[in-house]
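quick one before i forget lol
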Amino acid sequence: MADTDGSELAEPDRGLVLVSNRGPVEHMLDSEGRRVTRRGAGGLVTALSDLAGLTDAVWVCNAITAEDRAIAREHEHGAVRIDDGERRYRVRLVDHDPAEYQRFYSIIANPMLWFVQHYLWDLSNVPDITANELEAFDKGYAPVNERLADAVAEEVARSGGAARVMLHDYHLYLVPALVRDRCPDAFLHHFIHIPWPQPDAWRVLPARLRDPMLRGLLANDVVAFHTERYARNFLLTCQELLDLPVSFRDLSVRVGSHTLAARWYPISIDAAALEAEAASEGVAEAHDRLLNMRREYLILRVDRTDLSKNILRGFKAFRQLLRHHPELTGRVTFLALLQPSRQDVDEYIEYLEKIRRLVADINLEHGNADWQPIDLRIEDSFPQTVAAYKLFDVLVVNPVFDGMNLVAKEGMLINEHDGVLVLSEHAGVHAELGAFSISVHPFDIEAQADALWQGLTMEADERRARREACVEVIRSNDIRRWLQEQLNDMAALEAEPDPTAAPTPDEGRDRVGT
């Protein structure tokens, strides 16, 4: 990767098209029927906003709300300038039939692909691949990808045919091949923000569904991930499921005369923006409220109620901590700031109810009239979240699997108590911060309970040293550096001639993935 200090984001020297499911803004009508704009949800939107706002990129994305769809129809064959209050963007919204979009998003992308890539399926019971799932692929996932590809190809043609196209995530696995057919001179870069599992996980899907998605990805020039492990798993998938020649030494796969590079870039945060938010009046007010309820120790988790986040086992570990250490009674609070996730999916509705029941059971077992050990707040308040980051003694990040997990970086950056990070070895961020955290296995509840105790009782000097080491990593690899390194590598790969001969497959240990 090219060396950069991350302070400036250099504009690419050719046309740039960003592509994602959600865009930088969403539109709706207010109580008086006026069209208003709000910042799009999700970490991906935050990560790409600088790139789109500071360059002349066009951002192609799906129309999510009714007003998004109205704007898409008003500007059917072009981008519109949109201002979110901080930046101006060129956004091309792509309209879809709501039934098609529902099949695309709620049956194939979520939960099918999300569950496959996070190892979440209970294979003795689910999934069942029925006519419903096959129809959702043919009449949902495929047509939504096709319409996005049409819009991308038109934008590439407007830029002269040789633009860079930066696609994002598991929603768009068919798009690259469709764009490549129409835009052979474009440079296609696809970043996947969730884990890429080992090949056997993909065998859950029949070849009829699996192969078009894998072949679609292979039309890219680069497929990028957060960690080296995911990049190597991708190559293993190409080798074992498609019988393609791969090089683990060069991190590449050969498809006919085309070579695709697998790369990894750990995403980070905008440190300056988060620190500015931490100094805001809203955060100060939330900080005072939390400080007034704080006991001697504060354990924190901040998560969506997603099955991959492993929330139940985190609470079970806390219950074990209280059982092993009754001297903590009345002295510690586990503050859980949770946002409901995908409440249109049955498994997620059931999961949220399990969370509520477990918290009630633990509070009944260990609490008293003056103290409830778990303070569960199911709401979305960013000022409250930032205030809690400043106050925690232990931050719990214990996902089953996670592409990265920016909560770990956000919390460690602005914490003012030399807080300790308890971190799952299966989180992508573990590759960067694992050496300075207390590593845990996400399924080992007793080890997680021990880690909570270790974090609460760690000596002050060690706590400070660990947090300072985390902060150094976070500052040195911020969000601008993440973006700039990708742009630099794209330029370097474009300059390399594509060899005509297929590489000799690596031997020995270089053929062993992770």
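fyi The radius of gyration is 23 Å.
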